[in-house]
Design goal:
about 150 residues, about 30% strand, elongated
Protein backbone atom coordinates (compact mmCIF):
# COMPACT_ATOMS: atom_id res chain seq x y z
CA UNK A 1 0.00 0.00 0.00
CA UNK A 2 1.37 3.39 -0.97
CA UNK A 3 1.89 6.28 1.39
CA UNK A 4 0.40 9.72 0.77
CA UNK A 5 3.80 10.99 -0.39
CA UNK A 6 4.29 8.03 -2.75
CA UNK A 7 0.88 8.67 -4.32
CA UNK A 8 1.78 12.32 -4.90
CA UNK A 9 5.15 11.32 -6.36
CA UNK A 10 3.42 8.79 -8.66
CA UNK A 11 0.97 11.47 -9.80
CA UNK A 12 3.88 13.83 -10.45
CA UNK A 13 5.65 11.23 -12.59
CA UNK A 14 2.56 9.98 -14.46
CA UNK A 15 1.19 13.46 -15.18
CA UNK A 16 4.49 14.63 -16.65
CA UNK A 17 4.73 17.55 -14.21
CA UNK A 18 7.86 19.67 -14.44
CA UNK A 19 10.78 19.48 -11.99
CA UNK A 20 11.65 16.98 -9.31
CA UNK A 21 8.95 15.06 -7.51
CA UNK A 22 8.12 16.56 -4.10
CA UNK A 23 9.85 15.07 -1.05
CA UNK A 24 7.08 16.10 1.36
CA UNK A 25 3.34 16.83 1.30
CA UNK A 26 3.54 19.69 3.79
CA UNK A 27 3.82 23.40 3.02
CA UNK A 28 3.86 23.09 -0.76
CA UNK A 29 2.83 25.77 -3.23
CA UNK A 30 1.81 26.01 -6.84
CA UNK A 31 1.78 22.86 -8.92
CA UNK A 32 3.03 20.68 -6.06
CA UNK A 33 0.18 21.86 -3.86
CA UNK A 34 -2.31 21.05 -6.63
CA UNK A 35 -0.88 17.51 -6.88
CA UNK A 36 -1.30 17.04 -3.11
CA UNK A 37 -4.88 18.33 -3.26
CA UNK A 38 -5.75 16.10 -6.22
CA UNK A 39 -4.59 13.03 -4.30
CA UNK A 40 -6.53 14.13 -1.18
CA UNK A 41 -9.68 14.80 -3.21
CA UNK A 42 -9.42 11.48 -5.06
CA UNK A 43 -9.00 9.60 -1.78
CA UNK A 44 -12.06 11.28 -0.25
CA UNK A 45 -14.04 10.56 -3.43
CA UNK A 46 -13.12 6.87 -3.27
CA UNK A 47 -13.96 6.62 0.44
CA UNK A 48 -17.40 8.11 -0.28
CA UNK A 49 -18.20 5.79 -3.23
CA UNK A 50 -19.82 3.23 -0.93
CA UNK A 51 -21.21 3.88 2.51
CA UNK A 52 -20.34 0.42 3.82
CA UNK A 53 -16.69 -0.12 2.92
CA UNK A 54 -15.31 -2.73 5.33
CA UNK A 55 -12.31 -0.54 6.20
CA UNK A 56 -14.70 2.13 7.50
CA UNK A 57 -16.56 -0.25 9.85
CA UNK A 58 -15.78 0.28 13.52
CA UNK A 59 -17.01 -1.26 16.76
CA UNK A 60 -18.78 0.71 19.47
CA UNK A 61 -19.05 -0.41 23.08
CA UNK A 62 -20.14 1.84 25.92
CA UNK A 63 -21.39 1.33 29.45
CA UNK A 64 -24.55 3.19 30.40
CA UNK A 65 -24.50 5.59 33.32
CA UNK A 66 -27.12 5.18 36.03
CA UNK A 67 -29.70 7.94 35.67
CA UNK A 68 -28.48 9.21 32.26
CA UNK A 69 -30.05 8.06 29.01
CA UNK A 70 -27.47 9.69 26.69
CA UNK A 71 -24.61 7.48 25.54
CA UNK A 72 -21.12 8.84 24.84
CA UNK A 73 -20.89 10.26 21.33
CA UNK A 74 -19.03 8.63 18.48
CA UNK A 75 -17.31 11.60 16.81
CA UNK A 76 -16.64 10.00 13.44
CA UNK A 77 -19.83 7.95 13.00
CA UNK A 78 -21.45 8.49 9.61
CA UNK A 79 -24.16 5.93 10.35
CA UNK A 80 -24.88 3.04 12.69
CA UNK A 81 -25.57 -0.51 11.54
CA UNK A 82 -28.95 -0.92 13.24
CA UNK A 83 -28.86 -4.74 12.88
CA UNK A 84 -25.83 -5.00 15.17
CA UNK A 85 -27.06 -3.30 18.37
CA UNK A 86 -26.77 -5.52 21.44
CA UNK A 87 -27.03 -5.09 25.19
CA UNK A 88 -25.24 -6.91 27.97
CA UNK A 89 -27.23 -6.39 31.14
CA UNK A 90 -25.38 -5.57 34.33
CA UNK A 91 -24.09 -8.76 35.97
CA UNK A 92 -24.70 -10.86 32.84
CA UNK A 93 -22.33 -12.11 30.14
CA UNK A 94 -24.80 -12.91 27.36
CA UNK A 95 -25.42 -10.36 24.60
CA UNK A 96 -29.02 -9.77 23.55
CA UNK A 97 -30.38 -7.82 20.61
CA UNK A 98 -31.91 -4.45 21.48
CA UNK A 99 -34.50 -2.49 19.50
CA UNK A 100 -33.17 0.49 17.54
CA UNK A 101 -35.34 3.39 16.35
CA UNK A 102 -34.76 6.72 14.69
CA UNK A 103 -35.91 9.70 16.73
CA UNK A 104 -38.42 10.75 14.06
CA UNK A 105 -40.29 7.46 14.56
CA UNK A 106 -40.91 8.12 18.27
CA UNK A 107 -40.80 11.91 18.62
CA UNK A 108 -44.53 12.13 19.32
CA UNK A 109 -44.41 9.44 22.01
CA UNK A 110 -44.57 10.35 25.67
CA UNK A 111 -41.40 8.72 26.89
CA UNK A 112 -41.23 6.95 30.24
CA UNK A 113 -39.13 8.84 32.78
CA UNK A 114 -38.72 5.80 35.02
CA UNK A 115 -35.59 3.69 35.20
CA UNK A 116 -34.87 0.11 34.26
CA UNK A 117 -33.01 -2.08 31.82
CA UNK A 118 -32.94 -0.30 28.44
CA UNK A 119 -35.12 -1.99 25.84
CA UNK A 120 -34.31 0.33 22.94
CA UNK A 121 -31.67 2.66 21.55
CA UNK A 122 -32.77 5.88 19.89
CA UNK A 123 -30.64 7.41 17.14
CA UNK A 124 -31.10 11.14 17.58
CA UNK A 125 -31.14 13.67 14.69
CA UNK A 126 -27.56 14.73 15.49
CA UNK A 127 -26.43 11.05 15.33
CA UNK A 128 -26.05 10.75 19.11
CA UNK A 129 -27.53 7.78 20.94
CA UNK A 130 -30.00 7.58 23.82
CA UNK A 131 -31.45 4.56 25.61
CA UNK A 132 -34.98 4.01 26.90
CA UNK A 133 -35.71 3.85 29.77
CA UNK A 134 -33.10 5.65 31.86
CA UNK A 135 -30.63 2.94 32.96
CA UNK A 136 -30.92 1.56 36.48
CA UNK A 137 -27.42 0.03 36.36
CA UNK A 138 -24.26 -0.09 34.26
CA UNK A 139 -25.34 -2.01 31.14
CA UNK A 140 -23.13 -2.36 28.07
CA UNK A 141 -24.39 -1.28 24.64
CA UNK A 142 -22.52 -2.57 21.59
CA UNK A 143 -22.89 -2.04 17.85
CA UNK A 144 -21.03 -1.49 14.62
CA UNK A 145 -20.89 1.84 12.85
CA UNK A 146 -19.35 3.23 9.71
CA UNK A 147 -17.09 6.22 10.06
CA UNK A 148 -16.96 9.31 7.90
CA UNK A 149 -14.29 9.63 5.23
CA UNK A 150 -10.94 10.65 6.72
CA UNK A 151 -8.75 13.15 4.90
CA UNK A 152 -5.17 12.07 4.23
CA UNK A 153 -2.52 13.94 6.20
Amino acid sequence: MSTFLELVQDLHRESGAAGQAPSTVVGLRGEYNRLVNWVKDADLYIQDLYENWKFQRQSYSEVTQIGANALPTVQDAAWYDEKTFRIIENGETEENMIEVVEYDAIKTEIRDTGSGVPYRVIIMPDNTLEVDPVPDAAHTIKCDYYRDAVEMT
